[in-house]
Amino acid sequence: MDGPTLSPISAHARLWRPADKDVRWTGGFWAEKQNLIRSESIHSVLDAMEDPANAAYFGNFRAVAESGGTFHGRYWSDGDCYKALESILLLTDVSPDEALTRFMNDRIDIIAAAQEPDGYLNTQITLTELGRWTDIEHHEMYNLGHLFTTACLHHQVTADPRLLNIARRAADNLYDTFHPRDPDLARFGFNPSQIMGLVELFRETGEARYLELARIFVDNRGTHPERPGNNGDQSQARVPLLDETEAVGHAVTGPYLWAGAADIVMETDEAPLMAAITRIWEDSTYRKMYITGGIGALHKGTAERSHPRYEPIAEAYGRPYQLPSDTAYNETCANIANAMWSWRMLQLTGDARYGDVIERVMYNTGLSGVSLSGTHFTYSNPLRFNGETHFIGNNDSPRRWTRWTCYCCPPQVTRTIAGLHRWAYSTAENAVWVHLYGTNRLDTDLGTGRITLRQDSDFPWSGEVCMSVEAAPEADCTLHLRIPGWSDTTRLRVNGDPVEVTGCGPRYLALTRSWAPGDVIELTLDIRPRILAARPEVEELRNQVAVMAGPVVYCLEGADLPEGVTINDVALPADARFTPVAAQGVFDGLTLLRTELPRRAPWTTQALYAPARATDQSAVSATLIPYFAWNNRNDNTMAVWLPRKG
Predict the structure, then answer these.
(1) Calpha distance 115→36 (Å, rounded)
(2) Residue 518 burial (CB < 10 Å; 0-12/13-18/19+)?
(3) Which residues contact 606 (CB under 8 A, 6 or more apart)?
(4) Measuring CA to CA, how many Å separate 69 from each of 72, 73, 122?
(5) Which helix (H) or strand (E) holds 179?
(6) Cis upstream peptide for 308 (omega within 30°)
């Protein structure tokens, strides 16, 4: 499966992405997760997608190809099927698998047969009496966008043009429909993955019309908010994107839109558009993001600036600093979209704060969407779960599942982890940027020669990272090492000699020299557990604290408390001490944190309020687990934030 050796380089990105084959996880945390996706998760996903009772169903393509049948699932089923094929591509590119490749090739043949003569391709329309482009909630754009993205990757990995040709015909049909800029069609773009997909098609084919169309979809946002069928802030359509100042609306459609806009900036260098998505990212990150990297706090929100109508918004960003724990929505797709958007901002700027968000998402709420077994999934990701008394809202579930009424999240998880090696490094002229730490290998051409780096680390359970140079250009080359904002003290040695690490906060440390085979870089990051508080504006978290070690957020499950003690009965001292322990059993391979938690004074009356009392002085032994590992046991009561003592 030999394809092109280089990924397309965007003219106005500061950083470039190496070819997919140039980076591999060779061991450690992410290699284990990638192997789990290959051995378990992808088969769970594909099995579910052959079940007509599941929300995403490959059989819809087959029904169209055979000229008959009933549509099954949700309107966005096609897009989720494409995401599953993208997962297969990424997995088989790393490690060839004949069975998965046969499955993919068979589905491509069926997809080709399902495409209509004019290039239109949406089974939820073709198999029903629904009309084309009549309702934004039909998700036609979402489905096509994931087709475009998957088709480009398929061509890069296999050099086979079949799926790319399908995508181009669909994109040409989309261009013919939307290029005239009919105001009645300007409202379309809910869940707008088509913008990212069209830019990727432009990069892969050089066809300028695809970039032009992507820009049209960005321009359309907010231009006709008064038109019937435009759902306002729900799909970021009340205010033109260039004028937007805040992250509003549905927490998947927003990051998909803003990530697509970032892709456009990489190709066009539009300063006003860059300024807009930077403003929105800062609002999302500094006022509306959870400690886990999750976004989309509310099952049901309100468009407050739509006064006096106050339109309802589903799966929504809340107000600034509105971050409830037990009713937190944090859809898995939204959380990963947050990382996708931040990845693009990182390529545009080289600013380490974007790398920190990618890391925060992937070690926490991006990973919590899949069980430790790899076979079960979750849609929402709360930061507190109350067991049998917990309120179960839309798409909440007390247990992880294999089939679901909205199945977009499982293939989102599988494709992201399967392709996470693509986010580990970037390159630039005579430079390598190291974004993610772990055991991996980079072997890429910098133009002045090849550079080969081997990285060895037990990250995130250890802060020790060793990078060995196996090959390097003769000319000077700069290695930019990301220093995470959470690392309070960082040490660095090159060939045994200490190098001063200055500054604070997220940043890249530049090492420029003529590198030679045998050079060794030793980086020590500070992963000591830290007790964190939220800003005082976050009303739900006043006088509460949480624990992070390195990039990993920890939580307390009821299963790790003595009998008769619940998550409501304990507090966390501001000076608590933690003992890292290597886990066994269900958490084998993870590092847990043991500590002593004081018991709170019992509530002895049915009154809702009573005089404040001091916390009991007695303490109980408890073990904190990584947040991403919660809900893998019977007692899944859980809390990330605990009352602060002292």
Answers:
(1) 34
(2) exposed
(3) none
(4) 9, 13, 14
(5) none
(6) yes
Triad 423, 107, 197: Cα angle to 5°: 40
Query: What domains, with CATH codes, occur in the chain?
Result: 49-220 (no CATH), 225-378 (no CATH), 425-524 (2.60.40.1180), 529-605+612-645 (no CATH)
Residue 106 to residue 43: CA distance in whole angstroms: 16
| CA distance readout (Å), 13 to 74, 268, 411, 416, 432 | 36, 10, 28, 22, 14
Q: Are strands 572-573 and 642-645 parallel, antiparallel or unpaired?
A: parallel
Cα 524 to Cα 24, 297, 509: the distances in Å are 22, 35, 13
Alpha-carbon span 35 to 90, nearest angstrom: 12
Name the CA dihedral angle for 316, 281, 332, 27, rounded to a multiple of 10 degrees.
-170
pTM (predicted TM-score): 0.97
User: 380: which 2 tokens?
Assistant: 């929402």
- pLDDT per 10-residue tile (average), the chain, 646 residues: 50 92 97 98 98 98 94 98 98 96 98 98 97 95 98 96 98 97 87 97 97 96 83 91 96 98 98 98 98 97 82 94 97 98 98 98 98 98 95 94 97 98 96 98 95 98 98 96 98 98 96 97 98 98 97 98 94 96 96 96 90 80 98 95 90
Q: 139 near 333, Cβ under 8 Å?
A: no
Across the chain, how many H-helices and E-strands are there?
A: 15, 23
The DSSP code for 600 is P
- How does DSSP assign 618-640, residue by residue? -EEEEEEEEGGG-SSSS---EES
At 165, list the tokens: 């040709």
What the block records as the tokens of 346 is 């990182």
